[in-house]
């Protein structure tokens, strides 16, 4: 394959996954917009509930993410029975995790009050999570189906199902939250019902596609689904648990940074939230490319084609670098315009937020490449089924170096919020260097 063919193949896989990632983000944005118009306490409750759901979801999503390289590798070896076995046990583990974690959502009110949250907001959050929390298992099943279908080259359906989910979330959420179209006004419970409906739609669409599509019927994914396959289950769990822990460590790094930013001031925290959301949108692009890299590395590794595997890796890195250059140019040239899109011109705090946020976007331009490269490296390592040591390297980088560096720069050295973001640069940069080094050392020679 030529370099252009490798780039084209990576983009063919990656672009629908990028679109799906961005659409998934818009689900949370639509909830915030709707609840923001309903009430402050309700918005705070759903933001808190969604955050709690997301953190626990990341940990369980590792099983679904593990299915991607396992299925791609088995397909590369021509072992179709193993494709079915791995995907099926990924579904088993996701259902089990969703059931086990649900009591945390049911009793979330007292837990949040004990953590210092406002009792009224905690009560509303519990109302939301008792309904939305039932969607944990379906949400994780969706992750497995997405990984399974992506590994088999069927990424378009992943994009379209996510876009349909955004439309359904608004169509169900808006009338149920506000009581329109003759429906009862349910507030946060309406938002939770919409969330549950979204998960049900996605499971139905992707599961039906996986079972009925003519190209996929031969895998017989659901044949004797009730039968356990302990060796495959152990392999998915062994690969997936470190993936979930790695994702949780990175999410925790940004959550801890937000907490410390709140110690500095309201304007700084608002600027942090906006700048981070902007940076997260560009990260979704790199994440889609990383998933494509996982699939292609795993497939070529399974085929025993190290030369093609290395070429595919270089193509993924090149695409991510090109995206990073474009994003850096955007962040540095018009930061005020970008941040202004999130703010009301009549808000007296807007000029201060734009000024402070512009500095944060300049630092986001610094960690753009670091964040991109660590994401791509993790994706490629997963293609080699290497997740345990990368988990350790990531945790050491994020929590052993990045977070302490941010604290020292932000407070003892007096750089404030900009120092906290410099800590992100340090932590993500170290992760990128160590993870990339590990991949190229472990990748078989051509």
What does it look like?
This protein has about 450 residues and is mainly alpha-helical. The protein has 2 domains: about 10-230, no CATH class; about 240-445, no CATH class. It is about 85% helix and about 0% strand. The chain is built from 15 helices and no strands. α1 packs parallel to α7 (about 155-180). The two termini are about 15 Å apart. The mean pLDDT is about 90.
What key attributes describe this structure?
single chain, 446 residues, mainly alpha, 2 domains, 15 helices, globular, antiporter activity, transmembrane helix, MdtK-like, Multidrug-efflux transporter
Provide a quick synopsis of the model.
Helices cover 85% and strands 0% of the residues.
Unreliable parts: none
Q: How many discrete domains?
A: 2
The H-and-E topology, N to C, reads as HHHHHHHHHHHHHHH
Number of helices: 15
The largest β sheet comes out as:
none
The strand count comes to 0
Helical coverage, percent range: over 70%
Round the Cα radius of gyration to an integer and report it: 22 Å
Q: What is the chains' assembly state?
A: single chain
Structural class: mainly alpha
Cα-to-Cα separation, first versus last residue:
14 Å
Rounded mean pLDDT score: 88
Q: Tell me what portion of residues adopts beta-strand conformation.
A: under 5%
Gross morphology: globular
Membrane topology: Multi-pass membrane protein
Pfam families: MatE
Protein name: Multidrug-efflux transporter
GO biological process, one term: monoatomic ion transport
């Amino acid at each position: 394959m030529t370099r252009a063919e490798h780039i084209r193949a990576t983009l063919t896989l990656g672009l629908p996954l990028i679109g799906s990632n961005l659409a998934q983000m818009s689900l949370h944005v639509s909830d915030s917009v709707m609840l923001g118009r309903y009430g402050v306490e309700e918005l705070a409750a759903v933001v808190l509930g969604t955050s709690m759901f997301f953190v626990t979801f990341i940990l369980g999503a590792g099983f679904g993410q593990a299915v991607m390289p396992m299925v791609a590798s088995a397909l590369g070896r021509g072992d179709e029975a193993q494709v079915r076995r791995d995907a099926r046990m990924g579904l088993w583990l996701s259902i089990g995790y969703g059931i086990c974690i649900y009591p945390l959502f049911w009793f979330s009110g007292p837990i949040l009050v004990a953590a210092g949250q406002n009792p009224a907001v905690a009560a509303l959050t519990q109302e939301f999570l008792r309904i939305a929390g039932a969607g944990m298992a379906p949400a994780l099943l969706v992750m497995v189906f997405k990984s399974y279908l992506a590994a088999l080259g069927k990424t378009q359906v992943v994009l379209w199902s996510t876009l349909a989910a955004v439309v359904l979330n608004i169509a169900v959420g808006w009338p149920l939250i506000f009581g329109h179209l003759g429906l009862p006004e349910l507030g946060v419970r309406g938002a939770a019902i919409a969330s549950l409906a979204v998960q049900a739609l996605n499971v139905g669409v992707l599961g039906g596609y996986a079972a009925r599509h003519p190209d996929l019927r031969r895998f017989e994914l659901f044949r004797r689904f009730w039968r356990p396959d302990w060796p495959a289950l152990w392999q998915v769990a062994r690969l997936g648990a470190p993936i979930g822990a790695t994702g949780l460590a990175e999410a925790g790094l940004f959550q801890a940074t937000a907490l410390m930013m709140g110690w500095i001031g309201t304007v700084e925290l608002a600027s942090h939230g906006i700048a981070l959301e902007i940076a997260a949108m560009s990260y979704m692009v790199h994440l889609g490319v990383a998933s494509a890299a996982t699939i292609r590395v795993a497939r070529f590794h399974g085929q025993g084609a190290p030369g093609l595997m290395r070429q595919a890796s270089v193509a993924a890195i090149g695409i991510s670098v090109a995206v990073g250059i474009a994003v850096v140019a955007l962040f540095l040239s018009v930061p005020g315009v970008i941040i202004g899109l999130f703010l009301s011109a009549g808000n007296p705090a807007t000029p201060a937020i734009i000024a402070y946020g512009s500095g944060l976007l300049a630092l986001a331009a610094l960690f753009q490449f670091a964040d991109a490269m660590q994401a791509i490296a993790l994706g490629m390592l997963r293609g080699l089924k290497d997740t345990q040591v990368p988990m350790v390297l990531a945790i050491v980088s994020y929590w052993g170096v990045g977070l302490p560096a941010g604290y020292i720069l932000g407070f003892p050295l007096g750089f404030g919020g900009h120092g906290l973001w410099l800590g992100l640069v340090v932590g993500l940069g170290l992760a990128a260097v160590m993870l990339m080094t590990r991949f190229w050392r472990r990748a078989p020679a051509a």
